[in-house]
Amino acid sequence: MLSRTAVAQLDLLNPKQKNRVKSSLEQLEDDPFRRRSGADIKRPLTHGELPLYRLRIGDHRAIYFVIEHEVRATEIIHRSRGYKWLE
Question: What pLDDT band is residue 11 in, cutting at 50, 70 and 90?
């Protein structure tokens, strides 16, 4: 579910933030596209051939894509980092 980069970025968070991000990512397994309380989901960009989605988790953002019904998080970033790195 998490790329090596996402795992490394998750490890940099404090325990409370880490648990919040993990919990939010686990909820994506049920429906990775539906917005709901605590899951503000948007499709920010298409990077390559895969559409990427953004999950807002407080001050952090999880960037993910879905392939064959599996959610794969590629990045977990602070909101201040923005999305220019995707371009």
Answer: very high
Non-local (6+) Cβ contacts of 68 within 8 A are none
CATH code, domain carrying 51? 3.30.2310.20
Per DSSP, the chain holds a count of helices (H) and strands (E) of: 2, 4
Number of domains composing the chain: 1
> Tokens 């648990």 correspond to what residue?
19
Between 44 and 32, name the one with better pLDDT: 32
- Residue 65, strand partner residues: 72
CB 24 within 8 A of CB 39: yes
Alpha carbon 36 to its chain's center: 15
Among 51, 2, 6, CA closest to 60: 6
